[in-house]
Write a structure and sequence with these properties.
By secondary structure, the chain is α+β, with helices and mostly antiparallel strands. The chain is built from two helices and two strands, in the order αββα. The chain has one domain. 34% of the residues lie in helices and 16% in strands.
Length: 67
């Protein structure tokens, strides 16, 4: 789902850790890819968990330590 959503954005999934997803993209695409990640995570959560509101935090940083 996410890998298809970011096709064409010169972005890639670097790693997933529990409920975190780390992506790499260009500075020019960062805000757009951030929105794609947010929307994709909400959609996936709503697909599996239908009775609880899905809350997603997405941040842009130069590296994982800045999260």
């Amino acid at each position: 789902m996410l890998s298809q959503a970011i096709e064409g954005w010169n972005s890639k999934i670097i790693m997933t850790i529990h409920d975190e997803i780390v992506l790499e993209t260009s500075n020019n695409s960062a805000e757009d890819v951030k929105n794609i990640l947010h929307d994709t995570m909400v959609a996936a959560g709503q697909y599996y968990i239908k009775t609880v509101p899905i809350v997603v935090d997405v941040k842009i940083a130069k590296d994982w330590s800045e999260k």
